[in-house]
Amino acid sequence: MEYTLTPVGESDRVIIRNLGKFYFYDMAEHGGWPFPDNGEFDIENRLENYWGLPGLREWPADWKGFAFLIRVDGHPAGFALVKQIGPDTYDMGEFFIGRQYRRKGLGEKIATSLFDKFPGNWELRELTTNTGAQAFWRKIVHAYTGGNFSDGEEEFDAYDNVRFVVQRFKSHGFA
């Protein structure tokens, strides 16, 4: 299984939008989102901020987005959307690996390469009901940091005071 992780410009944004429907379907279980009347999850403009475009939710002026497409054997397999939320602070805004590519070590390889690409402080957030994502991120962050990270719950103003499980750590990246 050969994979690539490439920055996504305007031309491949549609691929992220298409994969985003599967991502939001997976997240609907934890967000409590019903199917729309037409039966199709439309991500609308939920991810547009990653390209500097107006999104469903206004980002603070100092945030910046970085979008990456994951391919396996040349086929789209997922995406990673990173936010820079401070001068040296990054947030894994959205992370999706297609079901057919999960549990093969791909997620860990992608995540750690992004931690290395963006050295500094990191935070990862998971919905409190998403115990699978919590286990995934705790395992990866523990291995990456040798256990040197914080893990707790908190509410975020930028997300309508929704409560998340949060891991924070410092990347030892290679810029």
List the defining traits of the structure above.
175 residues; alpha+beta; 7-stranded mixed beta sheet; globular
Summarize the helix and strand pattern as letters: EHEEEHEHEE
Q: Give the oligomeric state of the chains in this entry, treating copies of one chain as homo and distinct chains as hetero.
A: single chain
- Rounded to an integer, what's the Rg over CA atoms? 16 Å
Major beta-sheet overview: 7 strands, mixed
Form type: globular
Contiguous low-pLDDT stretches (5 residues minimum) are none
Summarize the amount of helix as a percent range: 25-40%
What's the N-to-C terminus distance?
26 Å
> What's the count of strands?
7
Class computed from helices, strands and strand pairing:
alpha+beta
Average pLDDT: 89
Tally of helical segments: 3
Report strand %: 25-35%
Adjacency order of strands in the biggest sheet: 1-2-3-4-5-7-6
